[in-house]
Amino acid sequence: MLEVSHLTVGYGSKPVLKDVSFRLADGEILAVIGPNGAGKSTLVRALSGILPPQCGSIRYNGRDLCSLSVQERARMIAVVPQARNLPAGFTAWQVVSLGRTPYLNWFGQLSPADEELVREAMRRTDTAHLAERLVGELSGGELQRLLLARALVQATPVMLLDEPTTHLDLQYQIGLLNRVVEVVRQPISGNGNGKPHSPAALVVLHDLNLVARYADRVLLMVDGCVRSCGTVSDVLRPAMLSEAFGVPLEVMRSPNGKYPLVVPLMA
Ligand SMILES: Nc1ncnc2c1ncn2[C@@H]1O[C@H](COP(=O)(O)OP(=O)(O)OP(=O)(O)O)[C@@H](O)[C@H]1O
Q: What span, in angstroms and rounded, lies between the C-alpha atoms of 190 and 121?
């Protein structure tokens, strides 16, 4: 269980996240939504350890993440970032292999088991055919899938994904989120003790209909604060969403009746 309590974080002394609290259970997908500038990426940066808390705490199973070494944290939290400053001269295989860095011995070489994990993650993310390609030659969508593969081989109990569908076409958006669901429900082992472990996934998403389809719970942020946190039907309410996003929105049922469908009301 990841527990964020009364977290206040900022750049310099000015707080951006203010008194943010929520929980994320193992095997759960929590979608973080909110308007531009609400603090979603700042939350990902804080959870990944880039920004230290000004107040409050971030704990996993009671352990304060701020007390961990860089290597310990890398075994705890994997990030699929929005920015892709990947070294252009690396092959796709090398980039995915970097996910095993926190587990490598002093010589820094992948074991046959590590290589098998890399192959499995590349199969699962439909990137196996790219293994020998240089990342500088790949499309945004291909890079996004590689970054998911890298996070998978890191085999951490918590995964943070910051707008992972941004550069993907509709087919790959659905494919990527299906894979996140698959990993959360049927994880791969590789965390050193050989036991598969269901990670918790926090996913920043802008598309509210993908949120409705894929999230177990939703965290709505406005102006650095938690406006609402709960199930999809608790949070995807027309009045609350319209106020948060500043446009009138209606929430209907999808044609198959299974999911809420968020529709902007155009004048
Ligand atoms: N490096 C930085 N230095 C100073 N302020 C920053 C920095 N990065 C973000 N901010 C500010 O923090 C606030 C929250 O930004 P953040 O990127 O977390 O929002 P967001 O919800 O992820 O937005 P978006 O949906 O546009 O990606 C904004 O006011 C932004 O200007």
A: 11
